[in-house]
Structures are given as C-alpha cells and as structure tokens.
Hints:
Order of helices and strands: HEHHEHHEHHEHHEHEHE
Radius of gyration: 18 Å
Helix content: 40-55%
Strand content: 15-25%
Oligomer: single chain
Shape: globular
Structural class: alpha/beta
Amino acid sequence: DDDDDDDKDYHRVLFNHKARGKQYFGTAADQNTLSVSQIDTIVKSVFGQLIHENSMKWDATFTSEKSQNSFTFTGADYLVNYAQTNGKLVRGHTLVWHSQLPSWVSAITSASTLTTVIQNHATTIVTRYKDKIAKWDVVNEIFNEDGTIRNSVFSNLLGNTFVDIAFNAAHAADLSAKLYINGTVYCHYNLDSVNSKVNGLVSLVITKRAAGIPIHGIGTQAHLSAGGAGNVQAALTKLATAADEVAITK
C-alpha cells in the first residue's frame, strides 16, 4: 500500500545517505511533537538522530523564574531518554546563543561573572548528558553578515573569548563528545556561498583550533529557498577546510 511505499522510500534515502559517507539523517523534536502518534511513528522508523527543538535552549533549561543556577531538565531529559530507548543518536542544541536568553543573563555587566556563568551552564548540562549526547552545538549563530562577531552580552563583555570559555568547559565535561560551532545558512543570511560570513567563520575556527580550543566541527543550518542552493557545495567545502567535521544541522 501507499504507507509501505513511503516507508521504503524513506529507508532508501537513509541507505543512500549513509552509502555516501554521511553519519545520520536526523530531525528536531521535543516532547510535544513526539506525543503525536504519527510523528512518533515516523521518527522511530526513519531518523537516526534527534536534536532538541527548544527544550535545551537557555531559557528552557532554567526554571520559569529564570533564576541563576536553578535548572530543570524535564523536556531535555524526555528527548534524550526517548532517543536512547529507540536507538537514536542525540545532538545537543545549544549551550551559548544570543537569543532565547533569560533576562538575568542579558543583564550581566561583569566579564568575570559572565565567564563563571558560561562555565557553570555548559558544565552542568554537558555533565548531565555525558556519554548520552554525541555532538553539541556549543555556540550558535555568532557571526554578522560581514564576518564580524555579532553583538551580544557574550561578545560585548568577553570579545570572542566566550567561544574558548564555552568549548573548554564543554570538553572538560565530556571528553568524548564532538563539539561544534553552529551557523546559519539562510539564503538571505549569506552562508549559501563562499563570502565574508563564511570566511570569518573559517578564520575564527582555524585560529581557535591552532590555539588548542577543542572545536571539532562546524554546523550549517540549511534554510534555503527553492533555487537558492547553487553555491552551497562550495560553502560546505570551504567550511571543511577548518574543522574535522561539517554537519547540515537543519
């Protein structure tokens, strides 16, 4: 029947994907989506990897009061447990991002305080999921279109050293996890070709890795419009010159 044909098509795509050297074909999910029976069935039968849709972002990790060092892991735990039960890999998303921050983080004015906060945040979360999450988007969407670092509480107080702080803390918490710097590949966000944004990212990763910062991979979010992917391969090839792994993370 049609359902059987669809299932065969899904598995054919997955087989071809792995045959070309790719590690997995994944999807984003959280408890609310996985509670839908149709989605649950598709995820179990088709995808090899799961990534948290929102439940691991900073404002979701903390309680509704968003008070410092008060964590709740209900949503994140659900996805990790679901993945383990069903034999899926997990990608952690994300530890440091300028968006979806609780107000108390945005209000920090001390570099030393922010350093401690980043270290505690990354260490607490990565330690909780040690040996359960294979890859982490440690920092997310940190570049402007011209290849400079985006203004945020992190860059304003720490320059680009917040990257070092986050990656070092995550690595210390789980030596086996692969750690990524994740970027945006919207067509209109200029990561769909080799340009200033791509070059800025590559330059930063090369510099940080040369200094011993444990950046293992670069993630790109392929939010592309129809007909807008012509130069993506060149961008991916360029990104691959800077790190051991490149992943299309959306």
